Amino acid sequence: MRALWRSIPAGCVAVAVACGSWAADPVVVDLAPGETWRTTIAVAPGDAARALIRRQGVAPGVRLVDAEGRILAEVEGHSDRGQVVVSSVTTASGGATVEITAPPDDGGEVTVEAERLASDEPNLGALLAADSAFRAAQ
Description:
There is one protein chain. The chain is mainly beta. The protein has one helix spanning 124-137, and strands spanning 2-5, 16-19, 27-31, 36-43, 48-56, 61-65, 71-75, 81-89, 94-101, 108-117. The chain has a 4-stranded antiparallel sheet. The longest helix has 14 residues, at 124-137. The radius of gyration is 14 Å and the shape is globular.
């Protein structure tokens, strides 16, 4: 375990959370106007799915959806810079899907990091609470 700092928009307090490193290497996605890109995180009930999206010139909408189609977390596209974090504990078996949608009139690049956090992950509740606070501050 190590503390990782996540960038927070100007005027917000930085939050350090104890967690492991991101499970997957970042993926760079070039979104065309109106395009939706998806990736699935394999999870079991009680695990958490988490994704960090770094926006670079595009203001995408981001959703985290469980295997049964329920929206677990959602962030509207309102800024073309900075980071978005979506995370939630899952109740359905299968995968949780991260959906990133570019606005109909604009495209651009995003970098995506996605991970599964096991239900027995130390500090899981604190990490999800910090993610929720980060989303609310945006």
